[in-house]
Amino acid sequence: MGFKFVKNLSGRAIAILSAAIFAGLVLVTVATIILVTSLSGRPVKADDGIKMPEERTAWHNGDCNVKCNNSDYPTPPLLLISLDGFANQYMGRNIMTSLDRMARCGTRAKHMFPSYPSKTFPNHMTMATGLYPETHGIVDNTIYDEELTGKMINAVFADSRAFHGEPIWSAAVRSGLRSNALGWFPSFKNITGYNPTVLVSYDAHMSNKQRMDIILDWLKQPADKRPHLLNAYFDEPDMTGHYYTNRRKPLEVSRTLKKLNRQFEYLFSELYQANILDCINIVIVSDHGMQTLDSRVYMDELIHNHHWGHASFKAKDAWNFVKDGMEISNSVVARVHIAKAENTTTESLMAEMECYDKDSFRAYDRKSMPKRYHYAASPRVGDVVLEGRPGKLIFKDLESDLESETFTGDHGYDYVEAVMHSIFFARGPEIQNGLVVEPFQNVELFNLFTDLLRLEPKFPNNGTLGSMDHIMKNLSLIRPFEEPLQPVQSSGAVTQLFALFENETKTLNCDSPASGTLGAPFYSKMSNTFTTERYCDSILLRSNDTSRKGVSTMILEPLSYSDQTNEGRRPINDFWPTFASSCDQECRTNWFNAVHYINTDSTDNVSGSIVASKSFDVLSRLSSLQFLINTDFSRAQLSWLNNLTDKYAYKYEQVLSISGTIFDYDLNGVADDPLSVDMETPWGLLDSPSHIFRILIRCEDGPHNGAWGYESGRCATPSQTRILAFILPVQKEANCLDPDVYLFANTARVRDIELLTGVQFFADNSTFAGVEKPLIYNWRLNITTELWDY
């Protein structure tokens, strides 16, 4: 939602507002204006005052020769505009012709993914810093920090110390540039000591024409006063979307879009008339989409799951999920902080939520949170998170539900939901013409901004430097020196395979040549940490020190139809045997002794499992692929993943699988330092990973026309490459999700796996020579929106 959180206007708020009004332009602090709304929940805005034809297209250069002919603008300023709540699906209404025209001579994304949760404050901070909410600290529109806030508060009122990272306006000012901000959250906070040169705080009553006139005035300033960077926030169509959805006056959003279109025609026309339109790099984005609400969930009405059974059962004196002392956010993503609640633990709360009501919400703790959310590193995300399903809104109790019945739309849901997708448009003398780019996540914006401002890329962020290069032109990009990636060295082909306890050897008889897969599939900046071994057509990567624990292990396996003739028809929810049942008798005895040894001093329900896709292959005897894993996970989620992999190999006939382990016990999304991971296990043989990953690669155009080049190790037509990646937390599945639903929820970017293992993929220059860099970045940064058909 926008900067509105309280419906009713108090007398004190009126007094504060009156004291804040100056002659001429009304400048009001954000902390005040968020309280000012009408009884309907929406602010009363001034008329935009734009009296012009619906279409005014003189500004649109039909031949798209976007080139500055104004000598007063030797370096293009960067204008960033955010349209709160502009869902990508709104473009399908064919109303925003101004943005369509902008894109014809510029660049647009098919859509942009918000960061999780898809809320206003977190995503404006993310777009400004390039950091995920878990990293910059604004994890929702409200935050709780035991030391800084002491209670759940609106992020507007949070101490500046609650904000982490370097916002783009701060980076610009720190680098000696001028930066003006108009209402962009949280430009009014002194985060780094480098604040906007000129700040106009958010005013809910300011019309969009007033905002655009401020922008025009700034851009027409003399060169010695003109800002190099302008950040401008517009609160529509979010304000309309919250109160006028498909259930209530659905045409109201279209009316708002028509106004916005007219207003942007005005802005572009005025810039064109001033001969500066082609002298400015303009980026227009949104923070999230909008979802129609269908029901509310009140946490104090949740009953004792295990005692009463079905969640719909009501009982007088039933167990209450909400405890005194808890801090709970009211949102589509409800964050539960145990805080000062007595006799309550994360484990007890998760136990009560187990398989509770998957149609209304999903329950996660920080350890089980899907990795693609990047929502676990900070304690501010909560001890338990109840993620509302699309259309659900969660409140602590009825008294906390301050929204009127007219509040019929909201956001914050999983960013892969189409209704949450946002927009990206760009135009300017340094922006490519007529380019449509694949979807990307908004953490990538910050590096684009620093490049367009010619800043040295020295500001840490979660984006991937270089991923937006193809959007720009006529610009010498500044790139820092980085330690080069090196291929992980191979110790050669293995012909004798040893069982786990080395009580048996087996000679490998390879049916396919050793050159049949990628020549150097694994690269790393710490390549001396790893070594690779070839087992026929499979390649194992492991620590080069067998006594060193907590280092990722992975196995690359080509899968084919012939491998899966029987297994490809296994039901996806069938479970696979653990290692012990596929091992010979002596090995099995030794294994059970190991598990018994562990369980005598531990309540952990663990068993030995292998991470390879070919779990019944001879590689199942390889000790390097054996790990201590939660038995429930092994019998359920890991089996589901193996069954799905088999189905894909059966359908697509040729699939490349890379499976391995992750150690991220500190939950920061980066591989743990092995020295910090306590991996004491019987005889020092087995690791216990926090997560298991798998990357599946296939060629869209099928195997029968030479699509997969075994000698080259890639698809013959690179653009036909399809990639599907998973990161599964080694935890019992708490929501009783169907296998497909669970696996989709835990899809991941290849880049996430790279960060969590220290290994980079698709980096072999010989294998991928001639493949365009944007395509390789897309492989690594791709966000899955649906599983492959099987």
Automatic annotation (TrEMBL):
<dbReference type="Pfam" id="PF01663">
    <property type="entry name" value="Phosphodiest"/>
</dbReference>
<keyword id="KW-0812">Transmembrane</keyword>
<keyword id="KW-0378">Hydrolase</keyword>
<dbReference type="GO" id="GO:0016529">
    <property type="term" value="C:sarcoplasmic reticulum"/>
</dbReference>
<dbReference type="GO" id="GO:0031674">
    <property type="term" value="C:I band"/>
</dbReference>
<keyword id="KW-1133">Transmembrane helix</keyword>
<keyword id="KW-0472">Membrane</keyword>
<protein>
    <submittedName>
        <fullName>Type I phosphodiesterase / nucleotide pyrophosphatase domain-containing protein</fullName>
    </submittedName>
</protein>
<dbReference type="InterPro" id="IPR044929">
    <property type="entry name" value="DNA/RNA_non-sp_Endonuclease_sf"/>
</dbReference>
<dbReference type="InterPro" id="IPR017850">
    <property type="entry name" value="Alkaline_phosphatase_core_sf"/>
</dbReference>
<dbReference type="GO" id="GO:0016787">
    <property type="term" value="F:hydrolase activity"/>
</dbReference>
<keyword id="KW-0325">Glycoprotein</keyword>
<dbReference type="GO" id="GO:0055120">
    <property type="term" value="C:striated muscle dense body"/>
</dbReference>
<feature type="transmembrane region" description="Helical">
    <location>
        <begin position="12"/>
        <end position="36"/>
    </location>
</feature>
<dbReference type="InterPro" id="IPR002591">
    <property type="entry name" value="Phosphodiest/P_Trfase"/>
</dbReference>
